[in-house]
Specification:
The protein has 404 residues and is of the alpha/beta class. It folds into two domains: 6-45 and 95-126 and 265-346, FAD/NAD(P)-binding domain (3-Layer(bba) Sandwich), CATH 3.50.50; 129-261, 3-Layer(bba) Sandwich (FAD/NAD(P)-binding domain). The strands form eight sheets. Strands 5-2-1-9-22-21 form a six-stranded mixed sheet. A five-stranded parallel sheet has the order 11-18-12-13-14. Strands 6-7-8 form a three-stranded antiparallel sheet, with no helix packed on it.
């Protein structure tokens, strides 16, 4: 505490952390304790939030779309989020997380002084699982950042000059399925003179292993309809320059190997003295807490219940609801009010985009597939982004990603 002011620190600029910061800045207007005794600090590696849920769309845009246009479409500047009265409420720091000391209640950074906290929200990006695969870091192409999108687009452009090419996607989760479907859907546009084969490698019996069975069936049917080769119950043992070594001993030729193996917890988060799952994710209670006044969301969290462990889907719907809940919980804490009710998502939405406007998903306990679900998914994305930057800027980003 400095000069009687305590820090509410939000680590990471993910959707949950960003929505929590915006919510807290709004609560300050009629909460004198939050306004006078607490400082809201948002810490991240960048000056912007990346729209990772649409990376697969951007990667498959026409080669003529410029670097600058892609970057503008995929990023939300913090400057545009925290403007005017809202901006004065949030301190934004560009720093790299080094350690968290839960005993002294300090956060340490590689490039700055440590900061004490009274409340801590952890929404840092996770670590790529593919780093455990030999050769993946050298020869594979992940899709975790805007820079990755540009690298993949550059590789697509090189492949488009060949008469025949093969693309392998390692990982059959949501990101892998969406990327495979979008490539197959767009291949006549981005690979007009190339005979392209797309292979999806998944180490489990089905793709989307944690999703509802109806979504799994629809997704596999759609991928096969696109002509995508599904190698199920098969692991990628190594990635080489032009091939992938598979678990049953064979080698698959691959001009481009895309990595969609998922993530595990951030190394700093995995080192914290809390109970964790097998992926290093912290087990949180029904209030998203790992400990009193320490909240964990996103790729680093797993909900602990008496009978099971559940990781919330990494999509804007859940992230926004988590961020709003955290803002309300901390607002109540600063008012010395009662604890908010347990976090309960308003709906369980599992949506997978499978090329263009076609999507399959489950919402309000109902299975929907086709363009109708695709429109619902895009409308939800627009609504969540508009909550942060307004309708005009949101429409501009949407136009760049989906239309131009």
């Amino acid at each position: 505490m400095q000069n009687g002011v305590s820090n509410i620190i939000i680590l990471g600029g993910g959707f949950s952390g960003l929505v929590a910061a915006v919510g807290l800045s709004r609560f300050r207007r009629d909460n004198s304790a939050l306004k006078d005794k607490y400082r809201i600090i948002l810490v991240g590696n960048n000056d912007f939030h990346s729209l990772s849920s649409v990376f697969h769309h951007a990667a498959c845009k026409n080669h003529s779309v410029s670097y600058k246009s892609i970057e503008q479409a995929l990023s939300i500047s913090y400057k545009n989020v925290f403007y005017g009265r809202r901006g004065s409420a949030v301190v934004r720091l560009k720093r790299t997380l080094a350690a968290i000391d839960t005993d002294s209640e300090y956060v340490f950074f590689e490039n700055g002084d440590p900061l004490p906290y009274s409340n801590l929200i952890i929404d840092t990006p996770g670590k790529n699982v593919h780093l455990h695969i030999p050769g993946a870091a050298q020869f594979g192409y992940p899709l975790k950042s805007i820079q990755d999108v540009h690298r993949v687009r550059g590789k697509f452009k090189k492949i488009s000059s060949k008469s025949q090419a093969a693309i392998t996607i390692v990982g059959g989760g949501r990101v892998g399925c969406e990327l495979a479907a979008e490539i197959a859907y767009s291949k006549n546009r981005i690979f007009p003179h190339t005979k392209l084969s797309v292979t999806l490698v998944q180490d489990k019996e089905h793709v989307l292993a944690s999703f509802h069975p109806s979504i799994i069936n629809k997704t596999e049917q759609r991928l096969k309809k696109y002509g995508i080769n599904l190698l199920l119950q098969t692991r990628a043992e190594a990635v080489k320059k032009n091939s992938v070594v598979l678990s049953h001993g064979s080698t698959l030729h691959s001009d481009l190997t895309l990595l969609a193996c998922g993530t595990i917890a951030h190394p700093v988060v995995a080192a914290l003295p809390f109970e964790k799952d097998s992926g290093g994710r912290i087990l949180v209670d029904e209030h998203l807490r790992a400990a009193p006044r320490i909240y964990v969301v996103g790729e680093n969290a797993c909900l602990k219940t008496p009978s099971s462990r559940f990781q919330y889907p990494r999509n804007p719907d859940y992230s926004v609801q988590q961020g709003m809940y955290l803002a309300k919980a901390i607002d109540r804490f600063t008012r010395n009010s009662s604890v908010v009710t347990p976090f309960k998502p308003r709906s369980h939405r599992y949506v997978v985009s499978l090329g263009g406007l076609w999507a399959t998903g489950r919402t309000f306990h109902t299975n929907i597939s086709g363009r109708k679900m695709g429109f619902l998914k895009r409308f939800a994305e627009l609504r969540h982004i508009a909550r942060l930057i307004g309708l005009r800027r949101t429409f501009f980003s949407w136009w760049k990603v989906y239309v131009k």
